[in-house]
Amino acid sequence: SLTSLPLCHPQLEGLCSFLQLSTCPEPFLVRFCSWLLALTPDLSYTSAAVLAEQLFLGRVLSLTQPPSRHLMAALTSFCSKYSHPLCRVLVAAVLQEPGEGAEQTKLMCELVEECLEPPSVQLVLSQVLEVPLSEKLLPVLQAVLGRQEVLPPELLDLLVLTLCQQAPAFATSLNYAKLVTAVLTAYQGQVS
């Protein structure tokens, strides 16, 4: 069992490589994730992050069309217990990818809208606000706002500050205008 063995990073990465998890067929990936969820005790944060990277990172970054139902099922399953490490790995990588990354952006929106618990939604928001805003990230922010979660004051302040600072760059962006309207509507009591 993965949890009874005191595996360090290289050992766990070696095991993933031996099992060819990064390239295994997606139906197997779904079964493997179901097996992971049944393990007791739960995986450590670090082990879950290594597995998130091995299982999903390459697949998500190489998407050029919508993910298969098997890949979505595996992601949703993994997310149900290990959403924080998954976000740390996946979202960070997608944010650093140059270019449009349309499928990756859609996938992040879907995870935010349907899979993530509130603390992980806040993590995604804080990760997005750490990088310069781009048109591709606006739908992710819109998805976060669509959850209508209560945001910690410091995160809301950072969101408002970022939107204000970036306003000149998005003077002609319809998505940016929608985002500002959504912020003002959702948090009118806190935004002065």
TrEMBL record:
Domain Fanconi Anaemia group E protein C-terminal: 8-191
GO biological process assignments: interstrand cross-link repair
Domain of life per record: Eukaryota
One Gene Ontology CC term in the entry: Fanconi anaemia nuclear complex
Gene3D superfamilies, alphabetized: 1.25.40.480
Name by which UniProt lists this protein: FANCE protein
